[in-house]
Amino acid sequence: MRMLLPTAVDDLTDADLDRAYAWPDEPQMRPWLRANMVSTVDGAARAPDGLSNGISSDADQRVFGRLRGLADVVLAGAGTVRTEVYRPVRVRPELLERRRAAGQTDIPVIAIVSRSLELDLETDLFSQPTGRVVVITHEASDPVRRARVSDVAEVLLAGEDDVDLAVAVDRLRATGLARIHAEGGPHLLADLVAADLLDELLLSVTPVLAGGSYDSGTQILRILAGDPLPGAPRALTLHHLLEEDGALFLSYRRA
Predict the structure, then answer these.
(1) pLDDT at 26
(2) What's the order of all strands across the beta sheet hosting 200-206?
(3) Which of 123, 125, 45, 35 lies closest to 71 in space, CA to CA?
(4) Which residues partner with 86 through β-bridges?
(5) pLDDT digits (tens, 9 = 90+) for 203-236
(6) What would you report as the CA-atom Rg of the chain, rounded to the nearest whole angstrom?
(7) DSSP of 96-158, one letter per residue?
(8) Number of neighbouring beta carbons within 10 Å of residue 31
(9) Residue 199 vs residues 2, 23, 192: alpha-carbon distances, Å
(10) Residue 72 contacts by C-beta under 8 Å, 6 or more apart in sequence?
(11) pTM for the whole thing?
(12) 254: β partners
């Protein structure tokens, strides 16, 4: 993997990647929410089987692992957790010392946004967690389901009749989770952007085309899908650009 911008660097090591994706103002960390998404060249966020893995690459998986290892909390929507079958997070041993020096827990917290609380609590994510699991829902959510979830995870209430993402983010930060790493899916990311909560978009572009539709009938979603963006289009600033085997890795920040 090589860096093209802001400076040209060949053969990036894992340490180089960690520096490229370092959180702003480390070690004096300020609250920051970044999102990481993968897409085809024409903007599809999923493969025909409905999963992101089919449009990923070895380089994308390498970056994905480093990003998780640097975060305080991994934020995802319940639909993505179900579809992608989220598993307990594991951090590479070489990142543990860095995390401890930064005052982070050994394992990033997994935070799941769920309005309906329709979660499979038998999966390893809940039954064999490696770290804290937090489920974010709202006060009007089903109390029976909420009680079941509370047996295997922390429940964070944010909003009365629907999840208020701004409140949820504030409450995560109030517990010391300043480095928030969102992994989608497209609907959650659209909600975060519409609520003006996104500071940085990390986009992996795989050199493949999805076309106008899939034969399987799977809906082709862009990396953002759902809520309209007030004042769109919104300007971003390119922070860095990496490349490997035609795949591009872009970091965009608020303009």
Answers:
(1) 56
(2) 2-5, 236-244, 247-254, 200-206, 32-40, 179-182, 73-77, 109-113, 133-137, 154-157
(3) 35
(4) none
(5) 999 999 988 778 877 778 899 998 788 888 889 9
(6) 18
(7) HHHHHHTT--SSPEEEEE-SS----TTSHHHHS-SS-EEEEE-TTS-HHHHHHHHTTSEEEE-
(8) 15
(9) 24, 11, 10
(10) 104, 105, 108, 109, 176, 177, 178, 179, 180, 181
(11) 0.91
(12) 236
Structural contact between residues 161 and 183, judged by C-beta atoms closer than 8 angstroms: no
Three-class SS state of 241: strand
Q: From 176, 119, 180, select the one nearest 151 (Cα to Cα).
A: 119
**Angle between helices 93-101 and 58-70 in degrees, nearest 10:** 30
Question: Per the structure block, which two tokens stand in for 103?
Answer: 């005052």
Q: How many residues does the chain have?
A: 255
Which pLDDT tens digit goes with each residue over 36-90?
999 999 999 988 888 888 899 999 999 999 999 989 999 999 999 998 889 998 8
Domain range list for the chain? 2-6+47-254
The 10s digit of each residue's pLDDT in 181-197 is 999 899 999 999 999 99
What does the pLDDT read at residue 27? 47
Candidates 56, 33, 46; CA nearest to 111 is 33
Peptide bond into 108 cis (omega under 30): no
Number of Cβ within a 10 Å radius of residue 183: 24
Provide the 3-class DSSP secondary structure of residue 37.
strand
Close Cβ partners of 127 (under 8 Å, ≥ 6 residues apart): 121, 152
Domain 2-6+47-254, classified CATH 3.40.50.720, yes or no: no
Q: Is the dihedral of CA 38, 44, 45, 47 positive or negative?
A: negative
Q: How far is CA 181 from CA 29, 109, 192, in A?
A: 14, 10, 12
